[in-house]
Amino acid sequence: MSQAPPSGSRPPRRARLVRSGIRPWALAGAILALTLAAFLATLEAGREQVRRASRQRLVIAEAVLRAAVDRYRYLPSVLALDTEVRDLLADPGAPAAIAAVNAKLEAIARASGVAAIYLMDAHGLTRSASNWNEPLSFVGSSYAYRPYFRDAVATGASRYFGVGTTTQQPGLFIGRAVPAPDGHVAGIVVVKVDLENLQGEWRRAGERILVSDAAGVVFLASEPAWKYRPFRPLPEAETRRIRTAQQYGDSELAPLLANGPADPGGTIDLPADGRTVSGIVERVAMPDLGWTLWYVAPTGPALRQALLVAAATGIAGLAVVFALAAAGQRRRRLRGEQAMRLALERRVEERTHDLRDANARLRAEMDERERTTAALRATQDELIHAGRLAALGQISTAINHEINQPLAALRTYLASTAVFLERGDAATVRRNLQRMTEVTQRIAEIIRHLKDFARKTGPRHCEPVRLAAAAEAALDLLRTRLRAEEVAVTCAIPPDALVRAEPVRLEQVLLNLMVNALDAMRDAPERRLALTASREPASSGDPGPCWRLAVADSGSGIPPEHMAQIFDPFFTTKAAGEGLGLGLSLSSLIVRDLGGNLGAENGERGAVLTLVLPVAEA
């Protein structure tokens, strides 16, 4: 017969829980379910946050990639109109013409930063190149088999990414056909653009980005092991086409994945030097280029955060259970309270130690975010420079016309001067020489503006800048368009208006504001552009006095529903292909960096964009 427990002895804990109606396994199951639910909910929220961040980074990466491609898009078209280029194609064996075009292509390649520029005849034989004096010169080589030559002959223009068969260096080949007098193709001008620097920037920023062509072959990647590999096995015909064109050199074209990439928002596993890189994949198509941009975001931070939340939830559940057990024990035996309190204090100390570790990890992550912010600032500077080059690209035809007019006048003066010199008319000869001097000074002034505006700015340094001089430089670049569109310009800027700014960046802002005003007045019956400046004293919200420059147009104004969005990136009311919507956004960023602000409102006739910059002492 079993004996009853002695009086005063404490019943076992399991018996106490059973008598109270709570089963130990039920408590354990509830805590486990709560912990699992917290883990799954936090993990999904973290993954969704990663997806949103990936899509935002994908927009920036696409803008940077397009800027790197579009900044040189105009160059082959301009060279195809060059007189010396056409003369060389008309007489390919002329030594003087070959030497002149070689020197011109070499100078343009050095100034623009492209990898190479070369000229082929209608049969694909290279007649002139920027690397004519280098060991791996293109001169004398035939590239008639390359797709960018065939496409340019067939359609007049081509864009093609591949590995160079002469230098074995990859690049983007942009081709433009040079028309012959009889309407046929006289030759092809090709500009090779090096995009390898983008990959280094992606690696330094810690981002995993890939760019694939229409066949699914990766040709740009932050990880070198992913380059020249398709996502899925290629058909035999596609492999034969790539190898025949030598698009990617002697690459094996080994597939990265067995079944192809996952859908956007899904998870992908990519091999990289004996390890596997996992992450959430997002992509965006670039149909005009035939490319696809991929962004792979790591899921490690989201998983670690979910584990921390699950651990905290489990610990909280255990703490609740222990608190309930301690309350029951306190009613039955007061002496157990002290022991339980000590145990809880030890647990709190352990949790405090864990929190200290978590705090240290958080500080490390904050340092990493600061480095990422610095990389984003460098990307912002590159976007601003790309915007300046895009503006030059938009007005390149007008500038070409502005230079060709003085050149035509110069040729006319030269011809007439020779006639007057034979007649002995010294007075007329001197007058013609004076006019030719003025024409050359005009050409030099235009080229100086172009060089100053297109150069890449170095470390930021503000200095006193005359607002009237900056406005006149921007108007000078738009002079041809102003005349062509019959725009009446009024510039009322005091000559003593000095602001603290960077000259090139200030000119970029003024050019963007004026181009925006001209676009707004494109369909207006009366076109008036007014620039007025006034000095304002320091107010409670400003650190000191400032100059306020207003750029007003006679267009239709800004619709009220768009007023709050005009400075947002990629917001534009223009038709597709007429702009990315970055001009006013980049201008606002530049003005904030200069310590000022940019505002917009509607005036009596059209829109008024107001630029406010701090006063600089002379």
TrEMBL record:
Pfam families: HATPase_c, HisKA
Domain Histidine kinase: 398-617
Chain coiled-coil ranges: 345-382
Membrane topology: Multi-pass membrane protein
Entry's transmembrane regions: 306-327
Transport found in the keyword field: no
Keyword Kinase: yes
GO CC terms: plasma membrane
InterPro entries: HATPase_C_sf, HATPase_dom, His_kinase_dom, HisK_dim/P_dom, HisK_dim/P_sf, Sensor-like_sf, Sig_transdc_His_kin-like_C, Sig_transdc_His_kinase_DctB
E.C. designation(s): 2.7.13.3
Keywords of this entry: ATP-binding, Cell inner membrane, Cell membrane, Coiled coil, Kinase, Membrane, Nucleotide-binding, Phosphoprotein, Transferase, Transmembrane, Transmembrane helix, Two-component regulatory system
Domain of life of the native organism: Bacteria
Molecular function (Gene Ontology), one example: ATP binding
Catalysis performed (reactions): ATP + protein L-histidine = ADP + protein N-phospho-L-histidine
Compartments in which it is found: Cell inner membrane
Function, in words: Member of the two-component regulatory system DctB/DctD involved in the transport of C4-dicarboxylates. DctB functions as a membrane-associated protein kinase that phosphorylates DctD in response to environmental signals.
Name of protein: C4-dicarboxylate transport sensor protein DctB
